[in-house]
Design a protein that fits this description.
five-stranded parallel β-sheet, 20 strands, 519 residues, 36% helix, alpha/beta, 20% strand
């Protein structure tokens, strides 16, 4: 029998770590069960030539979300993680054409003007204003509030609800909306790329997602030691408040008794009782039976056709020549429509866009690096990891990646012994029942955001947190989902305490006793 405040968190991704820290800081007994040997989930490291290299998310935005997380746990983010604001947000290239975006929006506008003319600069200014407006409209009533439906969101928006809902442009594609701001196809391709931040296509996702551009333009920070240090810092924060971590331990079943989540069974046969369970795995795994048949009904299944993108990820200690890398770099394909059509058809693109994170480059101009350097290279891939790619498919993808980079003048020497390639099938092994999808369900169509699983599930006492749940994909969204899950859990706990009065010696419960039980 579990104690009143025993919670099991399945998974030590950012959503699970933040959940554990917030609950432990409130005095609850938290056990985090993680199949991997280290915290982080998708925010992981791999060893290449005996060197740890970030192999997951590489862009740190919405710093205020993490400042608030640490403050809620009586700590300071700056005391645990060294952060440096990036001057250059990213360097972009189309063959010999290059464009930097900057933390200073005026500098970005000037750079776009120099790159594509005064009309493009004006288009960027209008785009930035619209992206900010959409973000501001949705920040409090949707991103930081429990999952809802369109009518519920309209209600939250107040008396201007219907007008505000139409102004976030849910019924137009991002690609279409970008055409109103940018005539230059290169700029349309650049800002359309933000759809891939949630594993989606700019040709199919709603224009609402231009809010991602506002998030990045509001600030990017570089994490000293790599993004994995953030995961370690949140895990340490939770541990400091008494949370217990059990790494290298897989959960085989979520226990359900009398219609409620009652703990977990481990692959070893051990059982851990709990009054609540928070699942930080992709909810698709829940629906597919990865945690037992009784937990299947907790959430709706995600058909393979609604999965988000996966990726081909090369992590290496290599040598870069011919292109002035900064921390974040993107070299674009020649035909974005063909690229995303291939991905939608379940194929690797023959001419892909390529992201290069040069982990040893500094925040300002990419200087301060000696060869060999740590590199993370990403090409979008379809979520078809249930059936592994053959070498006849992966080898051409590697060659296409290098060909894209060479068109921009970048030559990479990636020694085989110092390179680790992760494919969709590898991601499917790391995160079962997902096909290697990295962002939960894709954000395609106006209703996609409302279909994402929320904090509560159909099984009382079982909650979801992470980048595959509401409010969306990405590191800050995963942290926000943790706060939402914790809020729901604590409210449900208080409600249960009120509905089960505490018996006092000599008679019925008293108001003070009921208050204490729900504190």
């Amino acid at each position: 029998m579990a104690t009143q405040d025993q919670v099991v968190v399945i998974g030590a991704g950012i959503g699970g770590l933040a959940t554990a820290a917030l609950l432990a800081a409130r005095g609850m007994h938290v056990t985090v069960v993680e199949a991997a040997q280290t915290p982080g989930g998708k925010m992981r490291e791999v060893m290449a030539d005996d060197t740890p290299i970030d192999a997951g998310p590489s862009v740190f935005t919405m710093r205020a979300v993490f400042d608030a997380l640490f403050e809620a746990c009586g700590a300071s983010l700056d005391a645990h993680v060294a952060l440096t604001p990036a001057t250059i947000l990213a360097r972009h290239a189309w063959g010999d054409d290059r464009l930097d975006l900057f933390a200073d929006p005026a500098a970005s506008e000037a750079a776009i003007g120099d790159f594509a003319g005064a009309r493009a600069a004006a288009g960027y200014r209008a785009f930035r204003t619209e992206a900010q407006r959409i973000f501001t409209t949705l920040d409090r009533p949707f991103l930081r509030a429990p999952q809802t439906n369109p009518l519920g969101l309209t209600w939250r928006l107040g008396w201007r609800g219907f007008a505000d809902l139409s102004r976030i442009r849910p019924y137009e594609t991002l690609w279409h909306a970008l055409g109103e701001h940018f005539q230059d196809p290169r700029l349309r391709q650049l800002f359309g790329r933000y759809a891939t931040y949630c594993g989606s296509s700019p040709f199919r996702c709603p224009a609402t997602l231009m809010l991602i551009a506002h998030v990045e333009a509001s600030g990017v920070w570089l994490v000293d030691g790599g993004m994995h240090q953030l995961a370690r810092a949140i895990a340490a924060l939770a541990t400091r408040h008494g949370a217990t971590f059990r790494y290298g331990t897989a959960v085989s079943e979520i226990l359900v008794e009398r219609g409620r989540a009652a703990g977990v069974a481990l692959a070893t046969g051990e059982r851990i009782a709990a009054t609540a369970v928070v699942c930080n795995a992709d909810p698709a795994a829940l629906a597919a039976g990865a945690f037992g048949d009784r937990a299947r009904r907790a959430v709706s299944p995600v058909p393979p056709g609604r999965r988000s993108l996966s990726a081909m990820v090369w992590c290496a200690r290599g040598t870069a020549q011919g292109f002035p890398l900064v921390r974040h770099n993107v070299v674009f394909s020649r035909d974005p429509a063909a690229e995303f059509a291939a991905l939608a058809a379940g194929r690797l693109a023959s001419d892909p866009s390529v992201y290069v994170c040069a982990l040893d480059r500094d925040a300002a101009d990419g200087a301060g690096c000696t060869a060999p350097e740590r590199l993370q290279i990403i090409v979008n891939a379809p979520p078809t990891g249930d059936t592994p790619f053959t070498q006849a498919e992966t080898d051409p993808c590697t060659q296409s990646m290098h060909a894209t980079l060479r068109r921009a003048g970048l030559t990479l020497d990636l020694p085989e012994q110092a390179t680790v390639l992760t494919t969709p099938s590898d991601f499917a092994t790391l995160f079962p029942r997902t096909g290697g999808a990295l962002y939960g369900p894709a954000s395609h169509g106006w209703a996609a955001s409302f279909r994402r699983p929320g904090s509560r599930t159909r099984i009382p006492g079982l909650y979801c947190a992470g980048g595959s749940t509401h409010p969306g994909a990405g590191v800050p969204m995963a942290a926000l989902s943790a706060r939402l899950a914790v809020d729901c859990l604590l409210r449900d706990r208080a409600s249960m305490a009120r509905s089960h009065p505490v018996a006092m010696p000599g008679g019925m419960s008293t108001p003070s006793a009921r208050t204490a039980a729900s504190a």
